[in-house]
Fold this sequence. Notes:
The protein is 51% helix and 7% strand. The protein is mainly alpha-helical.
Amino acid sequence: MKYLKPSGADHTILIDATCTLTRRWGVRRVPFSFLLDEEGTLRLSAESADEAFLGRVAAALREPSVVGVPVPEEPSKRGYSVEILLQACTNFLGRNRRAEAAESLGKALELDPENEIIRAQLQDLAR
Length: 127
């Protein structure tokens, strides 16, 4: 948010509560920033919105859209399993069932051990 207010951005900020970014674009770390054009084509991505990335965004906004950038493949069966486990975690947390939520996150991390988002959520839950 510290970059958005000074830039005068007027677009909607979305929270990935259903793990769509992980499933669709392979996002496994936060922060994560990306720029999509009007057609939903991924133009730029980075793990942080540092000054270099913001400069690339400004340059990309001056260029016409690039059509035909390949869309990532649909996720594997393992990817769907991770998503279901993360949704189960959310459901457990909504009912204050922290032990079951932690168990779901642990299973998701076993399936996707490089996912830093899951690892951080599991650590936060353990506190």
